[in-house]
Backbone:
């Protein structure tokens, strides 16, 4: 029973998220249906991580097992054919060891959050970035972000419905860079708590607006209190960029 | 009768182009309707240049005349309010001299053409770039592009329906750069012939694929013969980036 590693891009806008659920369209279900249409096996792909409704992926990873030993190029083309017209595409398909697990073998997950800092509504990037009107101080946001890097109890930035056993996580990267009206936040860790990136970005935005000093982010972290978190940033600006194994 | 200069962004996908026409949605008409909804004056905005069906703009410029002397910030917010939900946004509104003409005062027009060089279908950038499967040699494309810079008879790269008086144009910039799977072509000139950028890009793609040598582009230019042009690149990859005055 050969195992395949799929690297998947999707536009999260029309989906209720990666994870299959009753009565709502999911990326996982869409990929499963494409696999079934190709080879008759409705194998449910196992993803590296859930993405919420409206969150995009440039490089989600999932594994599938098929009964027949198809060439990876055939699997890739066939699934992409049957995915149309959904905004989901398989970028790469590789044979994997049977011990490979998209979720449990992952060593690092890389997310990007995109803010467009301007007053005019987004049209070309509608649903693909967070438009923030007030001028943001990206240098102050970058300074504040450094307080979150490292191993911490991230309870402040954790959704109430988060199922992780522990709020302790090690954040390896949290950078903020401005290029014109675009502000890009990169976040990397072995794993994240539910809503962690969007919660951190929501608080960084308060720093950017000057409502919080950079040090207020450290205080919010140390409070380990969800009520101290800034309003969560919207899903449409978040991208799962890459998963390392 | 105060004149205003509008800088406009739009997603060209749902439009038959900038220019108003019977029985097809245009950006120009949509902006006119928003002006009328705001102040009761159905003034037709005069654009710096037509863009074809499906071509996008990051910085189209148009001028309008209004009967009343509104503050520019009011004009901007009101038009944006009435443009919703069309994918058109006014980025800037400035008062202009009555001698200012968006089309005839323009000193330079800057276009960008975006190619994504990969096999997988585009999903996040669907309708916003040209996907080209075969690997393209961007260095060869850049070398070929240099043959087109300067003052030339661009008949080879001119649409049969082009209304310009002369095929002589001065191309100031034609650059090709690769970043990962993205290839970006920048083109700048005082003005362009109809379909000139997409025609040049279509021929550059042949160079990228190795079907043409870089020097074949020079020969095609010198032939002054439309039948020597490569198949025109699709509209969805083209952006009117900026107009200088």
Residues:
């Amino acid at each position: 029973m050969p195992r395949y590693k799929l690297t998947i891009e999707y536009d999260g806008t029309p989906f209720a998220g990666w994870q299959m659920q009753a009565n709502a369209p999911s990326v996982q279900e869409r990929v499963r249906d494409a696999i079934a249409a190709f080879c008759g096996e409705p194998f449910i792909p196992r993803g590296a991580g859930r993405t919420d409704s409206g969150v995009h992926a440039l490089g989600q990873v999932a594994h599938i097992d098929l009964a027949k030993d198809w060439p990876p190029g055939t699997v890739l083309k066939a699934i992409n054919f049957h995915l149309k017209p959904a905004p989901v595409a398989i970028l790469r398909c590789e044979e994997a060891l049977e011990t490979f697990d998209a979720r449990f073998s992952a060593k690092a997950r890389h997310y990007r959050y995109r803010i467009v800092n301007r007053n005019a509504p987004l049209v070309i990037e509608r649903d693909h970035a967070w438009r923030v009107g007030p001028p943001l101080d990206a240098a102050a946001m970058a300074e504040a972000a450094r307080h979150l890097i490292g191993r911490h109890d991230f309870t402040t930035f954790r959704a109430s419905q988060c199922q992780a056993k522990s709020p302790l996580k090690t954040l390896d990267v949290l950078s903020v860079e401005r290029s014109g009206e675009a502000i890009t936040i990169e976040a990397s860790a072995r794993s994240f708590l539910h809503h962690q990136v969007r919660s951190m970005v929501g608080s960084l935005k308060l720093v950017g607006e000057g409502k919080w000093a950079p040090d207020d982010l450290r205080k919010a972290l140390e409070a380990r209190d969800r009520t101290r978190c800034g309003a969560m940033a919207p899903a449409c600006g978040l991208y799962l960029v890459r998963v390392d194994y």
Remarks:
- The mean pLDDT of chain A is 96.
- Strands of chain A lie at 3-10, 46-47, 56-65, 88-96, 108-116, 130-131, 150-153, 168-179, 182-189, 238-244.
